[in-house]
Amino acid sequence: MTDINVWAAIGFILAAYAVVGNDALQTLGTFINSNGRLHWSVLFAFAGTILVVTFTYGFLEHGGDPSFGRLANAKKYPPIEHVEWFHAVPALALLFLTRLGIPVSTSFMVLALVATMNGLGSMMQKSLIGYGLAFGVGLVLYLVLAKTLEARFLRHRDSEFRITWVVAQWLSTAWLWAVWLMQDFANIFVFLPRKLQAWEAFAGCGVILVMLAFTFANKGGPVQKILKSKSAVTDIRSATIIDFTFAGLLFYFKEMNDVPMSTTWVFLGLIAGREYAFSFLLKNVTPLAATKMALTDVCKAFIGLVVSVDLARGLPALVQGQPIWEGANSMVFILVLNGLLVPVGLFLARKDRVASAGAAFSLAAAGAAFFLFPLS
Q1: What are the residue ranges spanned by the domains of the chain?
Q2: What separation, in Å, do the N-terminal and C-terminal C-alpha atoms of the chain show?
Q3: pLDDT single digits (tens) 8-41
Q4: Which of 138, 262, 333, 341 is the most exposed, fewest CB within 10 Å of its CB?
């Protein structure tokens, strides 16, 4: 039976802060940006209420499992029998990368610690499908909206805070925040037993609320810089459309199966598709600039993925003498992933056409490998 020792508690607290702080970018970022005129405590009270209601529903619906059943497959995501100090290191690394403003996937950084290579492969496949579908939805949707609704928004700033748009945005945020929590509670509660007593579960919920309050007081933190670099995200009407679309995508993948996935990759795909549509129709950014922007976000997310795999496989090997890989296929796969950091790092350093092409090719090869390379 998994116990809750001091390292489990530390890992949980670090994960709670890093997950909430990092994912404010994708779930609550547009809400924070477009409601900057309100005091942070008002926004926190709203988001905190949604969190408590969603948590309570999940805890009761899944018989004491606060992860909404995302970790129920013990073959792919076995419980940690005894949490030790090195189990908390990935959560600490996630916290560090979050403070640097890097859009790291919390699912990979934290869940790679418990996932088998087969489980990690399933997570990555679902996340890549999520990125591709979100990119397509964002591109098509905004090819329709860029010169209609979005252009109208730019011309009529005075109607931004009409009550209908304010209500619509808060409703879309409530849905998005709830659906995201159903996906990502697993990333926080992975350090604790799969089934919790009510007092344990709600004490954990209280810790998350404290971290959420700090995030709102800090206006989302450094990761918000990525969102603010995109087109028209502070307009409450544009934010409503983004949130509603993102929530619909997450709900679709939640219903697809119980495999955990990176909601960060879905969000980055949606925003990238949106930027491309704007570059084609509104000309406020060139297609080349949109490409570099999307590639920069994916490269940073890829670095987080590789770091998470290295920590998850390397730490138990160093401390407990466990094998780093599960067979020859896993060995080759991990070595290739680390090798691809070279062209990715070169692109982030230079961002010229040659470096961009090299990074794009490397990322495409890595994505194909997750579908074609057998991981057992």
Answers
A1: 6-372
A2: 26
A3: 888 899 888 877 876 666 678 778 877 778 898 9
A4: 341
SS (H, E, C) the chain: CCCCCHHHHHHHHHHHHHHHHHHHHHHHHHHHHHCCCCCHHHHHHHHHHHHHHHHHHHHHHCCCCCCCCCCCCCCCCCCCCCCCHHHHHHHHHHHHHHHCCCCCCHHHHHHCCCCCHHHHHHHHHHHHHHHHHHHHHHHHHHHHHCCCHHHHHHHCHHHCCCHHHHHHHHHHHHHHHHHHHHHHHHHHHCCCCCCCCHHHHHHHHHHHHHHHHHHHHCCCCCCHHHHHCCCCCCCHHHHHHHHHHHHHHHHHHHHHCCCCCCHHHHHHHHHHHHHHHHHHHCCCCCHHHHHHHHHHHHHHHHHHHHHHHHHHHHHHHHHHCCCCCCCHHHHHHHHHHHHCHHHHHHHHHHCCHHHHHHHHHHHHHHHHHHHHCCCC
Counting Cα atoms < 13 Å in the Cβ hemisphere of 1 gives: 4
Mean of pLDDT over the chain: 82
> pLDDT-derived band of residue 2, with 50, 70 and 90 as boundaries?
very low
pTM of the model: 0.85
The yes-or-no verdict on residue 43 having pLDDT over 50 is yes
Q: Which residue has the higher pLDDT, 278 or 127?
A: 127
Query: Between 133 and 283, where is the model more confident?
Result: 133
- Does residue 344 carry a pLDDT above 80? yes
